[in-house]
Amino acid sequence: MGKVAVAFAAAAVLVSCSVAAVMVGRRIKSRAKWRAVVEILKEMEEACRTPVGRLRQVVDAMAVEMHAGLASEGGSKLKMLLTFVHHLPNGTEKGTYYALHLGGTYFRILRVHLGGERSYLDVQDVERHPIPSHLMNSTSEVLFNFLAFSMERFIEKEGKESNSQGVKRELAFTFSFPVKHSSISSGVLIKWTKGFEISEMVGKDVAECLQGALNRRGLDIHVAALVNDTVGALSLGYYHDPDTVVAVVFGTGSNACYLERTDAIIKSQGLLTTSGSMVVNMEWGNFWSSHLPRTSYDIDLDAESSNPNDMGFEKIIAGLYLGDIVRRVILRMSQVSDIFGPTSPMLSEPYVLRTNSVSAMHEDDTPELQEVARILKDLGVSEVPLKVRKLVVKICDVVTRRAGRLAAAGIAGILKKIGRDGSGGITSGRSRSEMRMQKRTVVAVEGGLYMNYTMFREYMEEALVEILGEEVSQYVVVKAMEDGSSIGSALLVASLQS
Ligand code: ADP
Ligand code: MG
């Protein structure tokens, strides 16, 4: 070989070596980036752990806070609000009633017709629309005028043959925000949640605002009750099954109510007669305990929300937030690694990833995870390999599993408070035989998250059995109530008339 050829061959070897070195270097770098992402996932998984021991601590904390909230005003983060609902509908109600429901994402209007027997419950014309987002930070006047206008349109559609023509219509206003009631049909807004921000509304009577707006439109409609959505769900549950004593909503937000003995509502002794019972609206979204597993993503989400340091439990279990927790994890990963390509600016937009999309990705059963790919593409992240799509599914799983399991702990906490968890409650003194006489207990559950996100529901139900044990679980029935809060509120108004 001539000198030139040797030099040429040497150069060729050098080039191929350096190409190989670059390739190996890239591979090492990409492996390091993948490792960084896996590290983030592991850290987050660890911070979200909910072993049954921890869930039991949450159960105890919930029961303790319930006691504290009932003992004195401001005694707990749980407001344990009076509802003035002493009796729930029992099936004998008759007539036609309406419900207008302002939720966190949707408003609904419906009419029920009751024939005096349980089996004769006819739910008619359910209308469900997203709440126009500009209303969430408008003024109370704009909001209530809109609701009154929607009600007017609903009535207009009824037509002349409607049997309620010419008769004053009785309406339940189902309102899914914390209210301090002074009677079943009046109460002032304590604060907004779930992203609503109409500050001049706080402290105003919510039923009065709606009644005023209806009157201004000349509608002959009487706001007969102001009903928290959970109380509506409890009413429908009880109507069908009198063993229903707890209701929980998992929708945009989350909350629970239950039937309490009036003599246990210590803070209102003197105000209430001591016999009988009253439904208590827990406002459990604001529950907090140091036992709740919290990540840096939760802390940031809270700090950047419209209500920081508020509604801590809601922010880890409810539909408005699960998507945003997932988004924050993906954003973090895309910042430390290029596995998602260049960081998409959309990933920095709060609430751009909705929980509906989280469930669609989590439950994607296509072999190549095409649904995950489609949703990521909508977020400006395209062409990610299968292993990255699998990683995203895993993130959804971790966030939703934590939510479902903590939701179960919350329910078990209520059962513990009322002595239906098989342990005899947190106050001692119950005899062993009493403990063994477990009563059948129905928990009415509703809300878009629970109704539509199978994995959330399954994690919740599985954890409830884990916490209560197989034996006690047989006595605890979780019943889904589609549109329960609206229908139940109308039933509640019906029960007030009889
Ligand atoms: P609202 O909270 O207005 O009363 P819903 O009870 O219907 O309304 O709950 C709506 C919320 O439920 C949505 O904002 C979303 O967070 C959640 N949700 C609805 N559908 C799904 C779904 N398919 N998967 C996961 N979450 C869902
Ligand atoms: Mg709701």
TrEMBL record:
Pathway noted in the entry: Carbohydrate metabolism; hexose metabolism; Carbohydrate degradation
Entry keyword Kinase: yes
EC number(s) given by UniProt: 2.7.1.-
Domain of life: Eukaryota
Keyword vocabulary terms for this entry: ATP-binding, Glycolysis, Kinase, Nucleotide-binding, Transferase
Hexokinase C-terminal domain ranges (all copies): 246-494
Signal peptide: none
The name this protein goes by in its record: Phosphotransferase
Source organism of this protein record: Brassica napus
